[in-house]
UniProtKB/TrEMBL annotation:
Keywords: RNA-binding. Residues 19-98 form the RRM domain. The keyword S-adenosyl-L-methionine does not apply. It comes from Pongo abelii (Sumatran orangutan). GO terms for cellular component: nucleoplasm. One of its GO terms (molecular function) is RNA binding. Pfam families: RRM_1. This is SREK1 isoform 9. SUPFAM superfamilies: RNA-binding domain, RBD. The keyword RNA-binding applies.
Length: 132
């Protein structure tokens, strides 16, 4: 059990339990507000990022979303939404490792989408920054 009273999800590598999830296989029609509404039932959301963003000028076949919860125990609950059909696709929800820095959190994930370039690449790690 973690200090928050729930069971945290240790990801190895000596990291503390994460409070960030990656949601993939999202419909291209999904919006940030829809994702916030869906995941706010599971715990207080500290930050939410949708890639590509709602106002992206190019069309993409799917999107990916990162949700940072205030309580790491919400991550375990959120994973139960895997395979839930949302709009027209089954969601895939996985925890992401966090690396704390003084002014921001960097999330490390393994995806085929390069969030910095908005291009599809071969499978390799990427970094997403939360905070200032």
């Amino acid at each position: 059990m973690n200090s928050g009273g729930g069971f945290g999800l240790g990801l190895g590598f000596g990291l503390t339990p994460t409070s960030v999830i990656q949601v993939t296989n999202l419909s291209s029609a999904v919006t940030s507000e829809q994702m916030r509404t869906l995941f706010s039932f599971l715990g207080e959301i500290e930050e939410l990022r949708l890639y590509p963003p709602d106002n992206a000028p190019l069309a993409f076949s799917s999107k990916v979303c990162y949700v940072k919860f205030r309580d790491p125990s919400s991550v375990g609950v959120a994973q139960h939404l895997t395979n839930t059909v949302f709009i027209d696709r089954a969601l895939i929800v996985v925890p992401c490792a966090e690396v704390m820095q003084p002014t921001r959190t960097v999330v490390m994930c393994n995806t085929t989408f390069d969030h910095r370039e908005n291009t599809v690449l071969g499978k390799r790690p990427c970094l997403i920054s939360f905070g200032s």
